[in-house]
Specification:
This is Small ribosomal subunit protein mS40. This protein is mainly alpha-helical. The chain is about 45% helix and about 0% strand. A hairpin with a 2-residue loop joins strand 1 and strand 2. The termini are far apart. It binds zinc ion.
């Protein structure tokens, strides 16, 4: 409709302008435009403003499209298909998107714990954990017993990536203590099972290694179950542990044990033993 209005210059105006001087055409023509032309120009201006707004909106959408695809809280935009069809030839926008994504990744790559305190994180997750509210898509009513091996294979990202894979700003590091604490139970000190958090097995392995290293470095506390120790376990007063005291009744000629003097050895067996060890006996 806009094109038809734009392509309807009245014939009378051309005839009138041919009579006028050429210098007047270079000046502002608005006072000389007839009523119909004013309407056409007005509609044209509106169409230009509308198209400019559409272009800027599509640019903003393309700019954050990579993040929107991987994060959960974003609602699907029905205009995306229309915008990509109308303004699909936006190669420079994609290049800027890649540059912008690379800059944000580099920004948190060195100090990944800064993202946990940023406004961007608070706006996205609030005060809840990263994995809160995540639900994996699966067939049937029973969820799978294991999480998937990995969410990203080369350039391919699965449709519903895990809470760590879906946000490129979340980087597992042993110094990223606030992130690691979200995967540790505050009551038992145990690392949450991946079936609860939904983290894929590849990221869970990194997570366990980071938690172990953080505990080794003293960044995370060890939580050991409480046991009431009894003093008997560490005393040396037990008969099997303590020193044997000498018997007070022991005289100089008495044997150590009473039964030792009461034994009368068999002469036949003593003779056999003496015969065997004859070469080693002095007498
Ligand atoms: Zn994953």
């Amino acid at each position: 409709m806009l094109l038809t209005v734009y392509c309807q210059p009245p014939v009378n105006r051309q005839e009138e302008e041919e009579e006028e001087e050429e210098e007047e055409e270079d000046d502002d023509l608005s006072p000389y435009i007839p009523c119909e032309d004013k309407m056409a120009a007005y509609v044209l201006n509106i169409s230009r403003i509308f198209s400019r707004e559409l272009i800027s909106a599509s640019f903003q959408f393309h700019r954050y499209r990579s993040c929107l695809q991987r994060l959960p809280a974003v609602k699907p935009n029905p205009l995306s298909a229309l915008l990509t069809q109308q303004f699909g030839s936006s190669a420079p926008c994609w290049q800027e998107v890649e540059v912008h994504a690379a800059q944000t990744a580099d920004r948190y790559k060195q100090t990944p714990w800064v993202y946990l305190d940023s406004e961007e994180y608070v706006e996205r997750y609030g005060s809840s954990a990263v994995w809160a509210g995540y639900r994996r898509n699966h067939k049937g009513g029973i969820p799978p017993q294991k999480t998937r091996k990995t969410c990203i294979r080369g350039d391919k990202i699965c449709g519903n990536p895990c809470p760590i894979c879906r946000d490129p700003n979340i980087i597992i590091n042993h110094q990223n203590v606030k992130l690691l604490q979200q995967f540790i139970s505050p009551h038992s000190g145990m690392v949450y099972d991946p079936t609860l958090t939904g983290v894929c097995m590849k990221q869970q392995k990194k997570l366990n290694e980071a938690i172990d290293k953080a505990r080794d470095d003293g960044l995370l506390p060890f939580q050991i179950p409480h046991v009431d120790f009894s003093g008997e376990d560490y005393s040396n007063t037990h008969d099997a542990v303590g020193l044997t005291s000498p018997p007070p009744f022991l005289g100089p000629s008495e044997p150590w044990y009473k039964w030792y003097g009461e034994i009368t050895p068999d002469d036949k067996k003593v003779g056999q033993v003496k015969k065997i060890y004859k070469a080693y006996l002095k007498h």
